[in-house]
Amino acid sequence: MTDGILGKAATMEIPIHGNGEARQLPEDDGLEQDLQQVMVSGPNLNETSIVSGGYGGSGDGLIPTGKSISCAGREAWVGPQREAGVRELDPLGSGRHPSHSTTPTGPGDEVARGIAGEKFDIVKKWGINTYKCTKQLLSERFGRGSRTVDLELELQIELLRETKRKYESVLQLGRALTAHLYSLLQTQHALGDAFADLSQKSPELQEEFGYNAETQKLLCKNGETLLGAVNFFVSSINTLVTKTMEDTLMTVKQYEAARLEYDAYRTDLEELSLGPRDAGTRGRLESAQATFQAHRDKYEKLRGDVAIKLKFLEENKIKVMHKQLLLFHNAVSAYFAGNQKQLEQTLQQFNIKLRPPGAEKPSWLEEQ
Fold first, then answer.
1. How does DSSP classify residue 46?
2. 3-class SS at 78?
3. Which tens digit of pLDDT belongs to each residue from 264-309?
4. Could you tell me if 184 and 223 are in contact, meaning their C-beta atoms sit under 8 angstroms apart?
């Protein structure tokens, strides 16, 4: 199609009057339709005549890529593959060509565009929210912006963080005590075996070595009981610190992030309220008001969640630590007093079961 138009433009004769003025040619409907087709479908480079002499050069510079046919009194160059089609569809040489149908868009393409649009909206909202929150955070750090403060809640949160640091220190010391007790038990067990062996090989000191061997074995037994109590104490504190307190602090982090977003959109709303009022600003103000209200509701909800979790955490901490501190005191006192019976009663009181040496760890069904 395109080579036909170029061929028309290259071979068209413009008659000139004697006074040098160009005479207007009659309108050609076929040429107008061909130009419209080129604008819609674009040129086909495989069937375009190449002009080596540049624009306005002589006809000798044309390098035809197809065969020349007559079209409404003018010559046009078409490719060999379209020659038969032109003769068959346009036998009268009117220069009109059938329009090309466009490929319909499938439902898969529409779904893909919809997903891409949703992802773009998500990234856009995230970028705007991050910018506003970063601006608010920097304003607060440099003392230029205001922030919403709940003094009572902030005091409780700071107290929780301080308590968690102290409990982590106790947990670290408890683990160290467990390691030292285990090493002591290993040493006492080896010493008892050595005394028992020497009592068999030294008849003159058999009775003395025997007493000491029995003493070390008794100390090992009591030490295993104490080690079980200390392990239970450490495990309970570890659960309290790494699970219960950490869960509350995660909610606190969400609350602080919601507070920052709330202040950021509050500041944005205040700036828009102080600006000029026109049609465009009114729409932005309504949108900012709706966004601010949504972040305010989120902030209020998380503030209530934090207050409830702090209350339950304090109650749970008192209950757990009351039991664990009593266990630790009774077990350590009975061990160093040499009261084996009281030590065993302490473990029974707190439902602590000791595993015999070399026993495999019970399955999770047995632990339930």
1. G
2. strand
3. 889 888 888 887 777 777 888 888 899 889 999 999 999 999 999 9
4. yes
In angstroms, the CA 317 to CA 247 distance is: 13
- Which pLDDT does position 249 carry in this prediction? 95
Q: Is 23 left (phi over 0), alpha (psi -120 to 50) or beta?
A: beta
Nearest Cα residue to 300 out of 356, 255, 348: 255
Quote the CA–CA distance of 93 and 95 in Å, as a whole number: 5
Residue 55 per-residue DSSP state: T
Residue carrying the six token digits 């970028």: 127
What gap in Å lies between CA 166 and CA 160, rounded to an integer? 10
Phi–psi pair at 360, nearest 5 degrees:
-80, 155
- The reported pLDDT for the residue numbered 259 is 93
| Overall pTM > 0.90 | no
Q: Tokens 């102080």 correspond to what residue?
A: 274
Find out whether 47 and 66 touch, Cβ atoms under 8 Å. Answer: yes
pLDDT value, residue 343: 86
Average pLDDT, the chain: 75
If you search the block for the tokens 């750090």, which residue do you land on?
Answer: 141
List residues bridging with 63 in a β-sheet. Answer: 50
CB 95 within 8 A of CB 4: yes
CA dist 32 and 98 (Å) reads 14
With a cut of 70, list the residues of the chain below it in pLDDT. 1-106, 354-368
DSSP 22: B
Contact 105, 236 (CB under 8 A): no
Q: Cα separation of 298 and 91, whole Å? A: 75
